[in-house]
């Protein structure tokens, strides 16, 4: 999507390219899955279901309450200027706060801007946009551009954030990290990042099914059948016309980054009925075995609130297992978070915990409690060679949409929440929408609000009339026909026109507007000069009064698109009419 335009503006010019009743399933309720759900709902799709394995949405943006404070165990911060999608939602859903970050990415700013301009010109989305121009390994890529080494701030920030060692990675991934991390103030969500995604899921007109484990996915030309185990432990089959797969679901039994060469992946479980292309592409993917360990430590009270790197464990992969970063969230507690790499074989949770404890002791701390530990299958990625051989081109041009299946998540977008959200929204707009002047299918544009829970307004209940049920109708004219003939509603006032003094000049009931619209539509369709066809645009000159409203609905009933215009102003030379957008 075009980051120079607001989210609302971009969606205002799009229409759904499939019937809005299309059954769309989304596997995974993390940032990618929920962002795709948001885009689908915004386009008007009304049958969207999110399947989430765990008890709440949010994916790796997990938050935990410890001794009365909220701690983000996974995703937690955003750079304000590089997160337009999420901050668009944040302004509507709740508050966030700024935190400071060292402005030490200066050495790569010009290179980052250069690559970003090329990415925008490519018209591609996600990592695909830079996969051809930045596929070399990072040291080689930077050396060719005059850098003697990888800037220390970039290397430390990248590795400490869980993306591996920079010498192993194609520069495309480092670019995605730097362009997101260096842009503006760093912000954290009050109440925890998980709570943000939970609020978003509750505000969307979709079905979210938590505690629902996907057991099998079978696809054919007509759609997908998904076997799930629901919250009651019962197995059921859900049918979808289209399915969106998020996160690491397709390669959850794949390769682990920096695992010993003799180790092999766990046997495939056959959860997805992959074809040969999917097997070939996903067999190249590695994920990082990444841990968050929470310790309560006495004796480190002098350490200020902040995020700290362990530089001695940043460069050498032989130190995997030792913590690469530590964070203190609050200065009135003894709770510290440690981040570490494992390898899924001989360096797992217990070893990671032991090494974190030893590191804390070496700092002068006394361990009071191991509070908890979380393990994440993090940052799916590929090698520099696979990127050079066109991995992302094949994913985007051959895989996306094949067998009614679409993939979103860190592999396609890079494992940052804003990158995931932006990619998911862009993919939905690319494959589930079009920007034609008139919609392919009748639908109602959704204007659902995302209300913040801290809004202090008083809600007033609006009671419904007895015997009245609100229907689900696909068009504005359909609603007028329904209410204009409803025995309870038809004689109630729909529009009132008042003059400049506030005096009522005229009114229309539902029945009157329905009758007037039918009469005008009949006359328009009988007209031979010109002969109107469904979808034609009709200039509708605005004249104050309810006759204008009658004509507007008459055009809709005749399946014409009314385009309101203001009449020429006689006081203005030239008298140009103004089209209302």
TrEMBL record:
InterPro entries, sorted: ANL_N_sf (IPR042099), FAD/NAD-bd_sf (IPR036188)
Gene3D superfamilies noted in UniProt: 1.10.405.20, 3.30.70.1990, FAD/NAD(P)-binding domain, N-terminal domain of ligase-like
SUPFAM superfamilies tied to this protein: Acetyl-CoA synthetase-like, FAD/NAD(P)-binding domain
Pfam families: NAD_binding_8
Domain of life: Eukaryota
UniProt name for this protein: Amine oxidase domain-containing protein
UniProt source species: Vitis vinifera (Grape)
